[in-house]
Write a structure and sequence with these properties.
Blueprint (H helix, E strand, L loop, with lengths): L1 H20 L3 H18 L4 E11 L4 E12 L2 E6 L2 E5 L3 E6 L4 E6 L11 H4 L1 H4 E11 L2 E10 L5 E8 L6 E8 L3 E12 L19 E4 L2
């Protein structure tokens, strides 16, 4: 058994080394930049992020923009945008859909694709391949542009990140779906380490009187 474990460990190491060896310079740079951004986000105990959310689809002549706010603490988050509310305690997600007056309940692990502006940074090394695209200018400031492509098929086939070259903080993210739609989180302001009670990340049905509760777990 010991020899078998050693053989498996050696094979995994060889595969990882081979994969890294065959990365292009742009893939290596992309991975390094996103790792720095991920480390930066994880260094904060809590975050409060004000953002602009933009949904676009040229073929369907859709362009909607709305303001939102995200409270984040570890794997827990509370996000409100356009009357919709997303709450997670790290294990369960409660989504309040304003137009339907409905709360949908799911396990956090069952949700496909990003929900928050920083979700893509949480565990990108296991699920995405990063490529540095270029340096660009956004709102008068220079940013690093990185594309992330998922290893397995999902609702969004690509994510684009813009990172501050100095602080490695995320400036905006764009998710691309398979129907020509883009979903952009443009970060307006980030409050670092604000005091947030854990109660913020607990669902209370009294906050949504009359809403239909749809448990999809």
């Amino acid at each position: 058994m010991k020899n078998l474990l050693i053989t498996i460990a050696a094979a995994v190491f060889s595969f990882t080394a081979l994969s890294q060896e065959h990365q292009t310079p742009y893939e290596k740079k992309g991975s390094e930049l996103v790792k720095k951004a991920s480390k930066k986000i994880r260094s904060y105990n809590s975050l409060k992020i004000h953002f602009t959310y933009i949904m676009e689809n040229n073929e369907m002549d859709i362009k909607d923009s709305m303001q939102g706010v995200l409270y984040n603490k570890g794997k827990m988050y509370f996000m409100e945008v356009g009357g919709n509310v997303f709450i997670s305690d790290g294990e369960t997600i409660w989504n309040y859909i304003y137009e339907m007056d409905e709360v949908q309940i799911n396990y956090a692990d069952d949700i496909d694709g990003q929900l928050t502006p920083t979700a893509i940074l949480e565990d990108f090394t296991k699920h995405f391949r990063a490529t540095f695209i270029r340096q660009d200018v956004h709102n008068g400031k220079r940013v690093d542009i990185i594309d992330l492509v998922p290893d397995v098929s999902q609702a969004f086939f690509k994510y684009r990140l813009a990172l501050d070259p100095q602080s490695h903080i995320i400036v905006y993210s764009i998710a691309y779906d398979r129907h020509g739609g883009t979903f952009t989180y443009d970060i307006d302001n980030i409050e670092k380490n604000p005091t947030i009670s854990d109660e913020k990340f607990s669902f209370n049905k009294d906050d949504f009187p009359g809403a239909y509760i749809n448990d999809l777990r």
